[in-house]
Design a protein that fits this description.
Length: 1059
C-alpha cells in the first residue's frame, strides 16, 4: 500500500514543479522505489510543509539551512553549488528540497530539527502558518455569522456576489463637497462615465501584468450604500477560501471600534482584537501577506492630519489612535501590510491622493435594480406594482431608493400603509416618508384588531424615547458624530432597555465588537430627520440658541428666529452636512408630514404664518407642496421661456427639477435666463444635464471659468452645450480649452456669435489636438481670421474624431482656406465643413478642389456667399469628376454665371455621389439651365436642386420640365423668383402628370397666373408623389387661390399647398 501511495504521488502533477518546459523534477521522489517506513514519514513532513517552504523561505534563511546541513555532513559543496545556480529564489528552494528529500532519514531529521529549533519568523511561519490561518478564519466566521441574515438580499441578482465595484480615477467635485443625498439625486443612480468594473476577487490584484498590487485601496460610497456589507461579504468569501487565497491574514477593524481607544501600538491593537493570534509581530511582518481593513472612516471621531502627525515606524510603540491610523496609511508603519479603507466620499477626500493606489466606488441600485428588489421583496405582485407606480410618480422617493438601505425603509413603510385599514394617502415627500416610518416602528407590536390604533393612544414611553433620540441625533449631527456609545445614550436620557423595543430597534442599530458596544441610526437621513423633529418641537419653546448645547448664548425667542438660525448654520457649513436637516425641518411645516407623528411628538399650536414664511427655503418648496410654482418653472424650462423670471424661489425650484427630473436634465433650455450668480448656484445640478442651451445670456469670461470647472469635473454628464450669442473672448476660450483637455463626455460645442478671435481659436485648437471626444464644434462669426484657420487646420492633421466644423463668417480669406484644404488631403474623417461668408475667391476654391480629388471623407461643403467665379466653378467640376463622396454642395450667392454652371453640369452627368446642389443667386440663365436639365436625364443621385433667384425664364423651366419626365431621383426643386410665367407652369404641369418622384416644388415669386395654377392643380389629379407646392406671390389673387386650393384639396389631399 505504501509503495502504491508513493507511486501515485509521483504521477500527481500538482506536486511537481515545471522544469525546463516538458521535464519535471518530483519534490517527493527518491532514487529507489523501495523506501522504508521512516523515509515515508519524513517525506510526509516535507510534503506537508512544501508550500510554506516555498512561500516563506528567504535568501538568508536558505543560506542558514545549507550551512547547518553542511556542518551535519548532509549536504556537500557540489550540491550547495547546484542549489545556488538554480536561478530565482523559488527555484533554489525547489532544488534544495528535492536534494534533501532524496537523502536518507538523517538529512530530513536535520532539516526538521533546524527549522523547529529556530526562533526566526520564517521558521515560525513554516511550522505554524497553516494552523494559525485556519484558526483565524474560523474566528472571523464566528464573529460575522450574526450578520449573515442582515447582509443577505432575497433577490439573487442583487447579492454582492453578483455585483461589481467601479474603478475610478479619483473623487469628483460633487462627491467632495455635497451631501450624500445630493450626490445620489444628481446622478439619479447613473454610473459615472468610462468606469471599469472590478470584482471583489480582483480587489488586491494588479490591474496589468507590469503593475504592482495596491498597498492602499480606498472604497467610497454614500451612507447606506453597503460598504460594511461588502466588507463582511469579502471576509466570508476569504474565510471560505473562495478569494485572495494568497493572503495569509485579514485583520478587519471598524472606526467605531477604534473610537474607544486613546493610545495603542499596532501589535497591541491586533492582540486586543484577535487574542488567538499569539504573535502579532509575525502576522504584521513582511514574511506573509496581510490585509488590514479599516471600515467606516467617516465614523472616526478624530480628523486625520497627514501634515502634522508625528511619524512612527515601530509597531510596538504606543501612539494616539489617529496618529496610528495616519502612519499606517502613509506607510511609515506596517509598510508591507496592504490596507483597505472604506468611507463616505466627503471624508475620504481628506486622504491625500498620492497615498492611495486604487480608488473604487460602490454603485447604488439602478431603476431596474429597484424593480427587481420590489418584485422579490413582496410575495404579492400587486404590492410591488403599486409601490413602483408610486415611486415613478414621486421622483424624490425614487432617487432615495438608489440607496439599498433606504429601499428597505421605503418598501416596508409603503407596504405597511397599504396594509392598514386607515386608507391613508401614501407619502409623497421625504419628510412624510420618515414620519410614517417612525410611526410604523412605534406602532409595530402594539395590539391591533380590526380597528386601527389611534396615534394618541400610543404608549407615553415612545414619545419620551423619540424626543431623546431626536436630541441625540441633533447634537450628534452638529459634532459630525454618527456612532454612539452606551454612555452617550445614557447621557441623553435613553434607557438601554428601550433600545430593544420596536421603536428603539427600528431606528437604532446595535454593533458589538471586541472593544465596545456602539449604536448608530439605521441611516444617516433618519438621524437627520429625528434631529429635525427635535429642533422643530424644541424651537417653539426654547429661549436660547439650540445650536449651543453647553454654552450660554443670546436669547432667541420664537420659532421663526430659530428656523432662520438653523438655515444660517446650514449655509455656513462648508460640507453641506446640515442641508438635509434643514430640508426635513422645512418639510415638517406641512400638516401632512407632521400628522403621522401627532401621537409621538408634543406638538404646540401652529403659527399660521409659518408655511408661507418658509416657502423660500431650499428644497422645502417641494416639501411644502408648492406645485403651482413647480409646474410653472417646469413648463417654462421646456419652452425655453425662463428669461427674466429667475427669482430666488424660481432658482430653488429649477435646481430641484434638474435634481430629480430626467426629462428636464435631458434638454435644458436656459436661453436668456442666467447670469454669473445663477450659474454658480446651479452648478451641481447643471453637471448632470445632457444638452445645455445657454444662448444669449451675455456671458463673459468669468462665467466661462465656472463652466470650465463644470466640464472638467470627473462626473460631468454634459454631452452637448450651446453658448451661442454671448460675449466670450479669448480668455473665456482659454478656460474652455483647459476643460476640453480632460473632459470625456462633451461631443458638441456651439460658440456661434461670440468674439473669441484668432487667439481664442488657437487655445481651443491646442485642446482639440488632445481631445478625443468632441465631434462637432461651431465657430461661426467669431473673427478667428487666417491665423485661427491655420491653427484649426493643424487640428485636422491629427484629430480623427471631429466630424463637423462650422467656420462661417470668420474672415478666413484665401490663406485660411488654403491651410484647411491642405489638411483635407490627409483628413478623411471630417464629414461637414461650413465656410460661408469668408471672402473665398478662385484661389481658395482651387486649393479646396485639389483637396477634394484626394479626400474621401467630406460629405457636406458649404461655400455660400463668397467670391467664387467661373474659374473656381470649373475646378469644382474637375473635382466632381473624381470625387464621389461629397453629397451636399452649397455654392449659393457666388459668381458662377452660365459658364461655370455648365462645367458643373458636365460633371454631374458622371458624378454618382452628389445628392444636393444649391446654386441660388449665381446669375444663371437659360443656357446653363439647359445643361443642368441634360445632366438630370442621366444622373440618378441628385435629390435636391436649388436654382432660386436666377433669371432662367420660361425656357429654362421648360428644359427642367422635360428632364422631370425622365428623371426618377429628384425630390426637391426650388424655382423661387426665376422669372417663370404661364408657359413655364404649363410645361411643369405636364411633367408632373408623368413624374411620380418629385415631392417638393417651390414656384414662389413668379408669374404663373390663374391659368398656370389651374394646370398645376389639374396635374395633381394623376400625380401622387408631390407633398408640397408653393405658389405664393404668383398673382393668383384671393378668389383664384381659394378655387385652386379647393381643387387641390379634393384631388390631392396629401399635398400641402401655399398660395
Amino acid at each position: 500500500m505504501e509503495s502504491r501511495a508513493h507511486y501515485d504521488s509521483i504521477l500527481d502533477r500538482s506536486k511537481r514543479i515545471t522544469w525546463q518546459d516538458d521535464c519535471y523534477v518530483d519534490l517527493q521522489s527518491t532514487p529507489c522505489f523501495v523506501s522504508s517506513k521512516a523515509e515515508t514519514e519524513e517525506l510526509g513532513w516535507i510534503q506537508k510543509h512544501q508550500d510554506q517552504l516555498q512561500r516563506f523561505i528567504t535568501t538568508s534563511f536558505l543560506e542558514e539551512m545549507m550551512t547547518h546541513l553542511r556542518k551535519m555532513d548532509v549536504l556537500n559543496s557540489a550540491e550547495e553549488t547546484k542549489v545556488k545556480e538554480a536561478g530565482r529564489l523559488q527555484d533554489q528552494v525547489n532544488m534544495f528540497t528535492s536534494i534533501v528529500s532524496a537523502k536518507d532519514s538523517q538529512g530530513s531529521d536535520a532539516l526538521r530539527a533546524f527549522v523547529q529549533s529556530s526562533d526566526s519568523q520564517v521558521a515560525q511561519l513554516i511550522i505554524n502558518h497553516e494552523s494559525m490561518v485556519k484558526e483565524h478564519k474560523e474566528a472571523l466566521r464566528r464573529r460575522h455569522e450574526q450578520y449573515r441574515d442582515r447582509d443577505s438580499i432575497i433577490c439573487p441578482k442583487l447579492n454582492i456576489s453578483s455585483r461589481t465595484l467601479l474603478l475610478v480615477d479619483g473623487l469628483s467635485d460633487i462627491q467632495q463637497k455635497e451631501h450624500d443625498l445630493m450626490q445620489v439625486g444628481a446622478t439619479r443612480g447613473r454610473k459615472r462615465n468610462h468606469l471599469r468594473q472590478l470584482g471583489l476577487t480582483k480587489l488586491l490584484e494588479p490591474l496589468t501584468r507590469v503593475s504592482l498590487p495596491p498597498r492602499v485601496s480606498l472604497t467610497v460610497g454614500v451612507a447606506g450604500i453597503g460598504k460594511t456589507t461588502w466588507v463582511r461579504h469579502f471576509l466570508r468569501q476569504w474565510s471560505q477560501g473562495a478569494i485572495c487565497t494568497d493572503v495569509s491574514f485579514i485583520l478587519p477593524f471598524t472606526f467605531c471600534e477604534l473610537n474607544s481607544l486613546e493610545k495603542v501600538s499596532a501589535e497591541r491593537l491586533v492582540k486586543m482584537a484577535f487574542p488567538h493570534l499569539t504573535d502579532p509581530g509575525l502576522v504584521l511582518s513582511s514574511s506573509c501577506r496581510t490585509l488590514l481593513i479599516l471600515d467606516g472612516l467617516d465614523e472616526f471621531r478624530c480628523t486625520l492630519n497627514f501634515s502634522d502627525a508625528a511619524p512612527c515606524s515601530d509597531p510596538k510603540k504606543e501612539v494616539s489612535i489617529d496618529d496610528l491610523v495616519t502612519n499606517i496609511i502613509r506607510g511609515n508603519l506596517l509598510p508591507d501590510v496592504a490596507v483597505w479603507v472604506t468611507s463616505r466620499p466627503g471624508v475620504a477626500s481628506l486622504i491625500p491622493g498620492g497615498l492611495v493606489d486604487r480608488v473604487t466606488e460602490i454603485p447604488g441600485f439602478s431603476s431596474k435594480d429597484i424593480q427587481l428588489f420590489l418584485n422579490h421583496h413582496f410575495s404579492e405582485r400587486d404590492f410591488s406594482s403599486k409601490i413602483w407606480a408610486h415611486l415613478e410618480s414621486n421622483q424624490i422617493l425614487m432617487v432615495m431608493c438608489y440607496i439599498p438601505c433606504i429601499s428597505w425603509i421605503v418598501a416596508d413603510t409603503l407596504m405597511y400603509i397599504m396594509q392598514s385599514e386607515t386608507q391613508e394617502n401614501l407619502p409623497r415627500t421625504c419628510t412624510e416618508l420618515y414620519a410614517h416610518f417612525c410611526s410604523m416602528k412605534a406602532e409595530v407590536g402594539e395590539p391591533r384588531g380590526r380597528e386601527p390604533v389611534k396615534m394618541e393612544q400610543l404608549h407615553g414611553t415612545n414619545r419620551k424615547l423619540l424626543g431623546n433620540l431626536g436630541r441625540l441625533a441633533f447634537y450628534g449631527l452638529l459634532k459630525h458624530k454618527y456612532t454612539f456609545s452606551e454612555q452617550d445614550l445614557r447621557a441623553y436620557g435613553i434607557d438601554l432597555l428601550l433600545t430593544q423595543c420596536s421603536l428603539g430597534a427600528g431606528v437604532l442599530v446595535r454593533e458589538e465588537s471586541a472593544f465596545s458596544t456602539t449604536y448608530r441610526f439605521t441611516h444617516l437621513t433618519l438621524q437627520e430627520f429625528l434631529a429635525a423633529t427635535f429642533y422643530h418641537i424644541s424651537s417653539k419653546r426654547a429661549l436660547f440658541d439650540l445650536f449651543s448645547e453647553s454654552t450660554m448664548s443670546w436669547p432667541k425667542i420664537g420659532f421663526q428666529n430659530h428656523f432662520k438660525n438653523a438655515f444660517q448654520h446650514s449655509q455656513q457649513a462648508e460640507d453641506g452636512h446640515l442641508d438635509v436637516f434643514v430640508r426635513f425641518l422645512t418639510g415638517l411645516l406641512c400638516p401632512a408630514a407632521i400628522k403621522p407623528l401627532a401621537g409621538l411628538l408634543a406638538l404646540g399650536k401652529d403659527d399660521g404664518n409659518q408655511k408661507a414664511w418658509a416657502a423660500g427655503f431650499l428644497q422645502g418648496l417641494l416639501e411644502l407642496q408648492h406645485t403651482e410654482l413647480l409646474r410653472s418653472v417646469e413648463e417654462d424650462l421646456q419652452l425655453g421661456s425662463l428669461a427674466g423670471k429667475l427669482t430666488r424661489a424660481h432658482c430653488v425650484v429649477l435646481g430641484y427639477l434638474l435634481h430629480v427630473s430626467a426629462e428636464c436634465s435631458e434638454q435644458t433650455n436656459l436661453t436668456g435666463s442666467l447670469n454669473y450668480a445663477t450659474v454658480k448656484c446651479l452648478l451641481p445640478q447643471l453637471l448632470y444635464c445632457s444638452f445645455l442651451r445657454l444662448e444669449n445670456n451675455h456671458f463673459k469670461d468669468d462665467v466661462m471659468e465656472l463652466l470650465g470647472s463644470l466640464l472638467s469635473a470627473k462626473d460631468c454628464h454634459i454631452q452637448k452645450i450651446s453658448l451661442a450669442e454671448n460675449a466670450i473672448s479669448n480668455k473665456g476660450a482659454k478656460a474652455l480649452s483647459r476643460a476640453l483637455l480632460v473632459n470625456r463626455t462633451l461631443t458638441s460645442l456651439n460658440l456661434r456669435n461670440n468674439n473669441i478671435g484668432s487667439k481664442g481659436a488657437r487655445f481651443l485648437a491646442e485642446a482639440l489636438k488632445m481631445n478625443q471626444v468632441l465631434v462637432s464644434i461651431n465657430f461661426q462669426n467669431n473673427s478667428i481670421e487666417e491665423e485661427g484657420a491655420q491653427a484649426l487646420a493643424e487640428v485636422l492633421h491629427c484629430n480623427r474624431k471631429l466630424v463637423s466644423l462650422n467656420l462661417c463668417s470668420n474672415q478666413l480669406g484665401d490663406k485660411g482656406t488654403v491651410a484647411l484644404a491642405e489638411a483635407l488631403t490627409v483628413n478623411h474623417t471630417l464629414l461637414s465643413l461650413q465656410l460661408q461668408s469668408n471672402s473665398i475667391s478662385n484661389k481658395g476654391m482651387t486649393a479646396l478642389t485639389k483637396a477634394l480629388r484626394l479626400n474621401r471623407g467630406l460629405v457636406s461643403l458649404n461655400l455660400r456667399e463668397n467670391s467664387i467665379g467661373v474659374e473656381g466653378a470649373k475646378n469644382m467640376a474637375l473635382a466632381l469628376h473624381e470625387n464621389n463622396s461629397l453629397q451636399d454642395l452649397d455654392l449659393t450667392a457666388n459668381l458662377l454665371h452660365d459658364e461655370g454652371v455648365q462645367a458643373i453640369a458636365g460633371a454631374i452627368k458622371v458624378n454618382r455621389g452628389l445628392t444636393s446642389l444649391h446654386l441660388q443667386w449665381n446669375f444663371i440663365k437659360c443656357s446653363a439651365t439647359k445643361a443642368l436639365a441634360n445632366a438630370l436625364l442621366t444622373n440618378a443621385t441628385i435629390q435636391l436642386l436649388d436654382l432660386q433667384e436666377n433669371a432662367i425664364g420660361n425656357e429654362g423651366v421648360v428644359f427642367l420640365a422635360e428632364a422631370l419626365k425622365t428623371n426618377m431621383s429628384l425630390r426637391t426643386l426650388c424655382l423661387q423668383g426665376v422669372s417663370a410665367s404661364t408657359s413655364g407652369a404649363l410645361a411643369m404641369a405636364e411633367a408632373l402628370m408623368r413624374n411620380q418622384t418629385l415631392q417638393t416644388l417651390d414656384l414662389r415669386g413668379n408669374s404663373v397666373g390663374m391659368e398656370g395654377a389651374k394646370a398645376l392643380a389639374n396635374a395633381l389629379k394623376s400625380n401622387r408623389s408631390l407633398k408640397s407646392l408653393n405658389l405664393q406671390g404668383n398673382g393668383i389673387g384671393e378668389s383664384g387661390a381659394k378655387v385652386i386650393s379647393d381643387a387641390i384639396r379634393a384631388d390631392a389631399p396629401g399635398c400641402v399647398v401655399d398660395i
